[in-house]
Here is the input.
Amino acid sequence: MLNQPAFAYGAGFRSLTEETRDPVALPVTGKLPTWLKGSLLRTGPSKFEVGTRTYNHWFDGLAMLHRFALADGGVTYASRFLESKAFRAAETTGKITYAEFATDPCRTLFGRVAAIFNPKLTDNCCVNVCDYAREAVAFTETTMPMRFSPDTLKTLGVFGYRRALKGQVSTAHPHYDAKRACHYNYIADFGMKSLYRLCRIGDDGKQRIVARLPVARPSYMHSFGMSEDHLVLTEFPLVVSPIDLRLSGKPFIQNYRWEPERGLVFHIVEKDTGKLVRTATAEASFGFHHVNAFVDHDRLAVDVITYPDASIIDQLYLARLRSSAPITATGTLTRFHIPLTGDAPVTRRILADVPLELPRINYATRAGKPYRYVWGTGVQSQGDFLDSIVKIDAETGTVARWHLAGLYPGEPVFVPSPSAEGEDDGVLLSVVLDIAKQHSFLLVLDAASLAEMARAEAPHAIPFHFHGNFFPVAAQAT
Ligand SMILES: [Fe+2]
Here is the structure.
């Protein structure tokens, strides 16, 4: 089967090495809403080859920033490599120099010993872009987020965490709390005594620790949950002995072990007091993305896209993806109900039994609160890569879908209409790869009906990437 791929999505994993620093106007078909003004800023792996080596995994490629700027019915596009130390070292030496998610540099014996005592964290921020402490910041899963100009996409330098927040691993999915005017994130500090630190990063630049949770074998957690008053660390049973990260010589993620007997462990922490409200365990599952969380009477509802195990990570190695091999591991929107008091068990329920990834909600009005709609990428043809956009009604389980053969859409970013009355009143912005034409376009869908409103054709194909956000014009004034 691997020799005769049924799909053609492998084209989305070719390197794009050409930058478009000067914005180019894109041809638009259809009609953009007149109120839609701002920039969709995204990051993603774009260069997978350095010298004679190829990165191993989709998550490893060198990051490129992309901007689709929308105003007055028109769209411009620009792109630029993130000038991280990892990127510069690769350009200068022609070698992979920094360890990524599933790729390690070839080191001499001396280099291997030196790396044990002074590991270099990668700053190749290819996972997400957020407005973080009032700056445009690109993220990877280390404590080295990178600031950049939202206007020129020029890299400005590392986002500085206070020394007290030190650690190695973090998430590219910080949560924003508008009421408290701050972001939350977690940082894992690996050592003889490892810790998860839940942190608060204020819009005013102030940073402080909310809670410290000791951990013997840290879990791989790509995101975490947030309700109005709680943070939820969900320890998937994919865990590592920190000493292995130093001594094994294996790439980062290959040090983690799937131990389903540990179950799925939720730690619920109060934002304002740092108090650990409850630790509760459910049946083992894996996941990358939390969707939302909210208090439902005396329980916390935590919505996560779950997989039966962590084999999805193995299915995203580059050689496999480039062969367009069928993808058999799919995620499902799952609600966990965790009683906030006592020791009653956690219950789980599938909200819609369809594949879902790269989820988005109406974050501005529904983050941490009861909500109804989830948008994400789905799979129409079993085994295919993410080939459609789905909208799930979490109350009824109803699924709506946008799908056209040969088109592979990325994460649909919800932008609310300024006069919105309903939760789904707005548009979705998604970068779509057209396999037949070998180029990408920005797709604008009506978020309520998934009806197509407009397309803006990019000058080339853009490799499949992960996340980004819409920066309204007003937020770009600084
Ligand atoms: Fe993610």
About this structure: Residues 292 and 367 are 6 Å apart (CA to CA).
